[in-house]
Design goal:
mainly alpha; 413 residues
Amino acid sequence: MSNELDLVNIYSLLTPIAILMIVIETAYVLIKKKEYISFFEAVTNMGTAIGNQCVNLGVAFLVVWSFGYVYEYRFFTIPTTFWNFCLLLVAFDFFFYWFHRHGHAINILWAAHMPHHSSEEFNLFVGVRASITQRLFSFTYLWPLALMGFRPEAIYAASAVQLMIALWHHTRVIKKMGWYEIIFNSPAYHRVHHAINDKYLDKNFGEIFIIWDKMFGTYAKEEEEPIYGCLTPIQSCNPNKIYVQFWKALFIDMVNTKSWWDKIRLWFMPLGWRPDDVKHIERYRINEKTFVKYNVEVPTMKKVFLMVQVALGLYLMSSTINLNISFTLVERLSLIFTLWLMIMSWGKLLESEKSYAKFEGIRLFLTMMTMYFVNQNHGGNIHLMLSMVLVIATGLIQFIPAFKVVGREVAVE
């Protein structure tokens, strides 16, 4: 690995690998008839992942720009060789451990991290269930890496590699791994981290290594079967609701408290702290004994439609986040907006919202306008145009009554 590598674009390079891993796990689960994956959760998780990947474009710019400033004052200059990059991953994981730990202990950081924990399942789809704010907050803990002498582009690339390494931990297929677990994190350890069982809360924060947890007292073995999710369940398929759930709760407290000091410190206080004059505003909360799993039954034709839409959404996203395609800022923002409407539409369809048909009609119209705009200004990109044509075509087909996609109720438990 040399200084000339296109490290900033690494997210678009690793995305196909992540998708392949998900396909393999899904095939295994279907063949073995394991009830590890539900359809509505899989679609919801892919929707949050697409939104997150689009936001990562802005995060990449901010990280490289701001870390570039810190890098000017570096103690050393560390070339991005293979072994130096491995050293960077170790240091990255150490600093990320503290961000992750504080992310479960401070209100504002939990707001950024909570979307990843809000799934009530545990599989590779959950591994890509992502917040749109976490990456930005996590980099506030990583600036010492630039001061040490690691290039900003390398630090951002390390973030992508760490995410990829952490992805495979989100599975119930792989059991305990013996000697490997002495140093490294594993699916068994990460299942503990995602559990709401009392004995598992706030454990196993390491992403690549488990040694940080063993060193700093946050280590726990998997013993009883974990129950997954959050103590304040989201119970929604809408990515926008998932992204903002705890942000909204904090904002409501901020608006309603009369103390200006409390309006400010609320965000930085320990998780769960609330001003005295807003504690009467109830927050729905569960525990491992009162947990009831959320479920959405999806008819066959809606499943087929959504599977096609998710595949096309991923295809469209791959073009949108590919920095080797020279879109203008306005073009790229237009494509991101199109993708955002798309993932919102999936949530509305899964939840059978009455506004779905109207919203979907507007979405398809705006997608056509975006396709025309990008094609006219950019000169056209065959892969992008093909994906958008297919998005529009399949979107229109769903309105044909024979396909039974629009207008059929979905039972929500």
